[in-house]
Amino acid sequence: MKRVIFDTDIGIDDAMALLFLHGAPGAELAAITTVAGNASLDDVTRNALVVAERFGIDAPIFRGAAGPLGEALGEGYPDFVHGRNGLGDIPLPEPGRRAEELPGAEAIVDLARRHPGELSVVAVGRLTNLADALALEPALPELLSELVVMGGVFGFRGHRGNVSPVTEANFGGDPLAADRVLGAGIPTTVVGLDVTQETVMDEAFIDELVDRAGEAGAFIHAITRHYFDFYEGLGDGRRCPIHDSSAVACLLYPGLYTTATGPVRVVTGGVALGQGILGEHPERYLSAAWRDRPACRVARTVDASGMRERYLESLARLKA
């Protein structure tokens, strides 16, 4: 059983990933920490509270970082993707629950100290909370069991960025935090667009969710109307990648993925701001930027049909 801290800028695909964790037989949610990204910190925290309350997720929820550590790519929030409220502009109730008083980074440190070696972190937004947690507790890499990050794009199978030719949105939203976290020595797997763009959901997939997952399926159907509209506007049809749930799948079902190994750097300035770069052969490089950097695993291929079936199976458990 994986005990998981879910670190999220909860928008549409994040909510799908949270329900995946909630339904999966191999996961137990220890906490949810929020970070600005798909919407403001206030909005993503409300979204986490609303989803948790609606689906009986009793993990504590902590407000995290409201902005990046350093230079970021773009301004504002991608409401054209996730809607103004971050959940496809469906009507949202005022949550009865409230976030905990402890800030997100402090909560990560506190939980890691109380449960050394027992916690996995799935980070599906900017890595600001984890960077802040590392500043508070430099021993955090020894306290956490593992980290799975949805972020970056590394050029496998010709995949490119979604906010610049070489940059994925989470890394672009806080490049400095991403570079610090991926260099900290936490046992880390990075799940980027190379595999999430290979794992596609369409209206037939959503219809099957509605049939198999009951209320959770109906909720996902409602929030993905806006999402599909955005991707259809790009010329991709009524289909889109399964981004954040891919990180959950990689945590719980690592056999669905193959990985490459090496240090990962994230560009913190210039025209390639936010680009993730995998150094598979650091011993060959002249640049000192690759020296003394810990290796990460980077997902390069995926069994997409297997991932989708694991998702459907997990969500169906919420109907039982």
Topology summary:
Blueprint (H helix, E strand, L loop, with lengths): L1 E7 L3 H12 L3 E8 L6 H14 L6 E3 L15 H4 L21 H11 L4 E5 L4 H9 L3 H4 L2 E5 L18 H5 L1 H8 L5 E4 L1 H4 L3 E3 H31 L5 E3 L2 H9 L4 E6 L1 E3 L9 E3 L17 E7 L1 H14 L3
Parallel strand pairs: 1-2, 1-4, 2-3, 4-5, 5-6, 6-12
Antiparallel strand pairs: 7-8, 9-12, 10-11
Helix pairs in contact: 1-10, 1-11, 1-12, 4-5, 5-8, 10-12
What does this structure look like?
There is one protein chain. By secondary structure, this protein is α/β, with parallel strands linked by helices. It has one domain: Inosine-uridine Nucleoside N-ribohydrolase, Chain A, CATH 3.90.245. Helices cover 39% and strands 18% of the residues. It has 12 helices and 12 strands. The strands form 3 sheets. It has an 8-stranded mixed sheet, with helices on both faces. A two-stranded antiparallel sheet has the order 7-8. Helix 1 (12-23) crosses helix 12 (304-317) and helix 4 crosses helix 5. It is globular and about 55 Å long. The model has no long low-confidence stretch (mean pLDDT 97).
* Number of strand elements: 12
Low-confidence stretches: none
Strand order of the largest sheet: 3-2-1-4-5-6-12-9
- Return the structural class: alpha/beta
| Architecture per CATH nomenclature, i.e. the level-2 architecture | Alpha-Beta Complex
Basic shape? globular
Mean of all residue-level pLDDT scores: 97
In CATH terms, the superfamily is Ribonucleoside hydrolase-like
Distance between the termini: 20 Å
- Approximate strand percentage: 15-25%
CATH class: Alpha Beta
**What Rg is obtained from the alpha carbons, in whole angstroms?**
18 Å
- What is the count of DSSP helices, taking H or I runs of 4+ residues? 12
CATH topology: Inosine-uridine Nucleoside N-ribohydrolase, Chain A
Query: In sequence order, what are the helices and strands, one letter per element?
Result: EHEHEHHEHHEHHEHEHEHEEEEH
